[in-house]
Amino acid sequence: MSSSGEVKVTLDLSTPIEDKHVLLVEDIVDTGITMNYLKSSILSRKPASLTTVSLLLKPEALKVPCEIDYVGFKISNQFVVGYGLDYQGYYRNLPFIGQVQNFQ
Fold this sequence. Notes:
By secondary structure, the chain is α/β, with parallel strands linked by helices.
């Protein structure tokens, strides 16, 4: 329910992106750490352009400045699940995004 603050890359690109137009899509940006890491990594590979998109953005949770080109929805700093977002592997399949009230 909180960020570790570390970015762990488990799979990297398998083809070159130099001179390609790249669209980086993220489900949710909260601290901005992962998005900034990915943007830096992709830009170092010299793409023709890089556009960033996020379904959800938590402006209050940003720990570092993070510019996103297109944002679906800005939400408060609450833990959300559903529509692909999960809590310990649960609630990912909800057909909506819901705010978690109490987990105990």
